[in-house]
Structure formats: structure tokens, C-alpha cells
Amino acid sequence: MRHVIIRDDDTSAVTPSACLERLYRPFLDRNLPVNLAVIPEVRTDVRMPDGRLEGFLTAGRNGGHRAALIPLAQSPDIVSYLRSEPGYHVLQHGCHHDYLEFGNTDRREVARRLDLGRQRLTEAGFAPPETFVAPYDRISRQAYGELARRFQVISTGWFELGRIPRRWWPAYVRKKLERRRHWRVNGTALLSHPGCLLSYHHPCRGMLEAVQRAVNSSALTVIVTHWWEYFRDGTADEPFVAALHSVADWLGSRSDIRVVPFSAVAAGRVALD
Prior knowledge:
about 270 residues; nine-stranded mixed β-sheet; about 35% helix
């Protein structure tokens, strides 16, 4: 049995619930869980290095927002929608989603943001998160230490020797020698993914095949996408949406593949390799 985890990043207080419904209804109807990496208190003026507003702030609504910090609980629409669908599983995605937010080496500031993020999610009525996703997949050595104290699962793109705590190095070397994608340190599961296979940066033709290759090559595969990429210009990119839905069709048709939430890994019900 192969296992697949669907992870969608960047849901926040400013996300239109209609966008998530449009994308993930075929998954929910097939009882395929969707893990949403949720920004607990989104900063509404986050910009990329080139000066552009982050896509999750403008997608789906043809415009931006005034500069502010908006806790998730201040958006009853998205909170009500997420809580009404048991197929959604909420992860902690940073705190404000500032650029390279958890590349910060100030341990106190990292800890403050982690605890504030958890507080904001619980204030919105969600259980304390078991899984953490760092904005931009950037995690400092100091941040890894704080994350391991608070979370059972860390999901990121890759791991670097120079960024993980030194006491983790022996386990990291074993992982590399054994060519394993995922590993554990002191009870914390560390999961990587094969890149954002479902992204507007790739042609829609071939997306399903790329997902199939990744899934068939590993016992556990994390498939990452970003809801806002499907609504970049305020309306749905229909070929891209269709490509995502073809993944739901394929996964739903396979008896030898089980789609699971990160919580199944946290509970030890899914082997990493």
C-alpha cells in the first residue's frame, strides 16, 4: 500500500472559501483528505523580493488589502467553511507569512511566532496543530529546535546539513546513505516532497503523469500545491483546475493507494518508507 498526503499552502483570513470549494470538492466527495497549511495571522502587505504582493493576497478577488495583521478568527466565512468539512485538516503555516519568516536565527522571536500562531489557530476553534509548514520552505537551525519541541511533523521541501541542529547530523547522514526521503528525530517526523508538481510554472499537460511517477516511486509522497495559483487573475485557470481534478480522479480510482492526513503520520499509523 502506498500513501499520499495532499498539502495545499497559504489559506488565511483573506482566502475566499469559494476558491477552496472549487478546487477540493472532488477530493472531499471521494473522502480524500486535504491538508491545508493555514497562516494563523496573515500580514496583508507581504511582498516578494521583486516588490510584488504575494499571490495569496490578491488571487480570487482582483485586488489587494490595506496593510494589517488579520487573525484567522476574524474571518467567519473561511473559519465556518473549514470547520464544516471534516475532510480538511489544518496545519500551522508560519505565523504572519513574512518573507523567509522562519529562516530567522533569533530563537526567542521564532518561539514567540510559533506560540502566537498556535494561539491564533486555537482561537479560531481548531485543535492545536500537530504539523508545521514553513513559509518558503526556509527553516533555520534555531527554528528546527523550537519546531521539534512543539510539533510531531515538519513538512518541508528539503533538508540541509548546515541548517539542521548538529545533534541531528548522524540521523541525517543515515537518511542520505539510505536514500530516504523522510526521516525521524526523537519522535518528530521530517517529511520532504518532490517539488511543487502542481504549479502554474509547469504545463498542465503532463501534471498528472508527474504526480503518478512521484507516487509510484515512494511508499509515502507529499503532493504540494497552492490554492491561489489556480486563481491568479481573479478567475479560475480552468485547464489547471482540470489537471488538479484529474489527480483526484486517479487517486480515487486506485485501491493500492491511500490518501491520508499528516495526523496519520503523527499517530504512527503510516510508515515513512
